[in-house]
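STRUCTURE:
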């Protein structure tokens, strides 16, 4: 039987939260903040986070951190050592396969753990046996609405709590006016330096070979169709990864006239990214495999209409013909181009979608709203704040 600890202590068994891009790391940061706000002393064992990430955790008063740097043996030793030495009120895990390390102790009712499902690890051919072990022994399973639906198709007996993610704590909605932004100039794929205009199509996303579903290639191939009607349109792709060379080559396979309208910026500092969000006309990520899609929320915070798809989690964030447009076939460059052209040709509608998106981001995706949902699923109360 579980024994009540003398203090509120939590063990987080995660892949990593800092020095990583992507939604999983962002989700982990939100969970750390929520548990810290609830007054927990938090021990973190990160599987594959760079060891120098420890500096990032110093912003929290009650967090002890260690990284096993991709060593499965050290990871199991650290996790089991912590569980056998200390009494934890709660254990949180960010991946079903990592949760399998916890499953034996949970089965013996020595601990209970929460696992956050991010979709990619439970899409066919996953989860494997190890992942199923982590799933079926969890006390609570957190997921987005879309991830929950996909998981229940294969495992209808699971109880899954819908906990949508949010923007980070202290995210401001007091944003600078677009008119105050400085002019931006970047090198296009044809090698020329160009000023960005007022018809910028922005996408922010990792360029990983394992995440080609995000749709950078579709946007590149959509540009010739877009430029036929709007020759001043520009596509700006922000992100880096092992698939970036393929995407650059794809852009360079287009005509020189098209190349001068495509910008592949790689990693950019936060201030540059903010300027891009502020000055772009619309945000487009025709993905077909998002488990949530925080970048849509970020674009909506900046009051930008979004292009997304009907076939992944974006449909629960971007409201079709209210905050943006959802395409039926995100692999079709013609369909994506048509949606973009529809917004380029209707600036009043695009602005209305942007205003509605910003209101939606404010009303549903602020950190305090995530924290409330997170606490409620765990039976925590707001009086469990630090210092209470």
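SEQUENCE:
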């Amino acid at each position: 039987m579980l024994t009540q600890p003398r203090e509120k202590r939590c063990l987080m068994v995660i892949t990593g939260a800092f020095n990583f891009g992507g939604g999983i790391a962002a989700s982990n940061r939100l969970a750390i903040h929520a548990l810290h706000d609830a007054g927990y002393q938090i021990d973190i064992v990160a599987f594959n986070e760079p060891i120098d990430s420890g500096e990032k955790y110093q912003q929290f008063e009650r967090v002890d951190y260690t990284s096993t740097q991709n060593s499965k043996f050290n990871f199991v030793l650290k996790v089991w050592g912590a569980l056998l030495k200390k009494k934890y009120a709660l254990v949180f895990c960010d991946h079903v396969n990592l949760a399998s390390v916890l499953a034996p102790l949970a089965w013996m009712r020595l601990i209970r753990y929460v696992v956050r499902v991010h979709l990619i690890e439970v899409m066919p051919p996953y989860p494997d046996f190890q992942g199923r072990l982590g799933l079926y022994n969890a006390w609570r399973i957190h997921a987005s609405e879309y991830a929950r639906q996909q998981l229940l198709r294969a495992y209808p007996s699971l109880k899954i709590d819908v906990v949508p993610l949010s923007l980070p704590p202290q995210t401001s909605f007091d944003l600078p006016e677009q008119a105050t932004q400085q002019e931006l100039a970047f090198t296009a794929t044809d090698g020329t330096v160009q000023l960005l205009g007022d018809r910028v199509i922005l996408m922010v996303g990792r360029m990983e070979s394992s995440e080609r579903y995000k749709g950078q290639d579709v946007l590149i191939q959509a540009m010739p169709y877009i430029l036929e009607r709007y020759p001043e349109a520009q596509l700006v792709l922000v992100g880096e990864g092992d698939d970036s060379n393929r995407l650059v080559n794809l852009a360079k396979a287009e005509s020189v006239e098209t190349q001068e309208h495509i910008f592949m910026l790689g990693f950019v500092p936060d201030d540059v990214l903010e300027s891009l969000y502020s000055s772009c006309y619309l945000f487009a990520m025709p993905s077909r495999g998002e488990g949530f899609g925080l970048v849509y929320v970020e674009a909506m915070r900046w009051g930008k209409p979004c292009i997304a798809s009907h076939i992944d989690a974006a449909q629960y964030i971007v409201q079709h013909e209210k905050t943006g447009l959802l395409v039926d076939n995100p692999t079709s460059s013609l369909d994506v181009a048509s949606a973009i052209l529809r917004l380029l040709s209707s600036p009043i509608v695009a602005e209305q979608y942007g205003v509605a998106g910003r209101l939606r981001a404010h009303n549903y995706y602020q950190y305090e709203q995530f924290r409330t949902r997170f606490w409620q699923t765990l039976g925590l109360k707001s009086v469990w704040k630090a210092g209470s």
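REMARK: The two ends are 28 Å apart (CA to CA).
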